[in-house]
C-alpha cells in the first residue's frame, strides 16, 4: 500500500515502476487506485491511496494485512515534514498495523535542497519506531534514481 501526503509522488511512483512512464502532469488521486505490476518473477499488487486530508482516514484500511507500507515524502518540501510525521506516526500507532514492514521514500531528490535520508529519519522520527522492519531511501521518480534498490526491497517482502 502506498500512502503519504498529497503531491508527494505516490501515483508517479506507481506509474514509473508500472510502465516507466514519468509525467509532470499527474491528476491528484481520488480515494484510491489499484494496480498490478509485474517485475520478473514478482507480481506487486499495489493500492495507491490518495493523500489529501479528506482521504487520510482511508489509509489504515488499505494498509492492514499488506506485505509492506510505502510512505512517500516530498523530500524537497520541508515545510510539510511536520504534517508528514504526524500522519505517519498516527497511522503506525493503529493496532491493526502492528509489525507491517515500512519503506519510507524521500522522493524528488532531483530538486536542489532536498532533505537527506538522515534528515528525513530525524524529521519523521523514524528512530522512535519499533516492532517492524523499516527502511528509508532517497529517490526520484523523475530521474528514477534509486528505484532499483526500492524494487529490490519490495521483492524481498514478497512471499
Ligand atoms: N521534480 C519531481 N517532481 C515529482 C517527482 N515525483 C512526482 N513529482 C511531481 O509531483 C506532483 C505530484 O505527483 P503525484 O504522483 O500526483 O502525487 P500523489 O502523491 O499521487 O498525490 P495525491 O494523489 O494527491 O495524493 C506531480 O506534478 C509530479 O509530476 C520527482 O521525483 N521529482
Ligand atoms: Mg496520487
From TrEMBL:
Gene Ontology biological process terms in this record: protein transport
Entry binding sites for GTP: 4-11, 51, 107-110
Gene Ontology terms, MF aspect: GTP binding; GTPase activity; metal ion binding
Alphabetic keyword roster: GTP-binding, Magnesium, Metal-binding, Nucleotide-binding, Signal
Positions with a binding annotation for Mg(2+): 11, 29
PROSITE patterns tied to this protein: ARF, RAB
Gene Ontology CC: one annotated term: lytic vacuole membrane
Superkingdom, taxonomy of origin: Eukaryota
Stated family: Belongs to the small GTPase superfamily. Arf family.
NCBIfam families noted in UniProt: small_GTP
Name assigned to this protein: Uncharacterized protein
Taxonomic lineage of the native organism: Eukaryota, Fungi, Dikarya, Basidiomycota, Agaricomycotina
Amino acid at each position: 500500500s502506498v500512502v503519504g501526503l498529497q503531491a508527494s509522488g505516490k501515483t508517479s511512483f506507481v506509474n514509473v515502476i508500472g510502465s516507466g512512464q514519468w509525467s509532470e502532469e499527474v491528476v491528484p488521486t481520488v480515494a484510491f487506485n489499484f494496480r498490478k505490476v509485474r517485475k520478473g518473477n514478482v507480481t506487486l499488487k499495489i493500492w495507491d491511496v490518495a493523500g489529501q486530508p479528506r482521504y487520510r482516514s482511508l489509509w489504515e484500511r488499505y494498509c492492514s494485512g499488506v506485505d509492506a507500507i510505502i510512505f512517500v515524502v516530498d523530500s524537497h518540501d520541508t515545510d510539510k515534514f511536520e504534517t508528514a510525521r504526524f500522519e505517519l506516526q498516527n497511522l503506525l500507532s493503529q493496532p491493526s498495523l502492528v509489525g507491517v514492514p515500512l519503506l519510507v521514500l524521500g522522493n524528488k531528490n532531483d530538486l536542489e535542497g532536498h532533505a537527506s535520508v538522515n534528515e528525513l529519519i530525524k524529521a519523521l522520527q523514524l528512530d522512535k519506531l519499533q516492532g517492524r522492519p523499516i527502511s528509508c531511501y532517497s529517490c526520484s521518480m523523475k530521474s528514477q534514481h534509486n528505484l532499483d534498490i526500492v524494487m529490490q526491497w519490495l521483492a524481498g517482502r514478497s512471499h
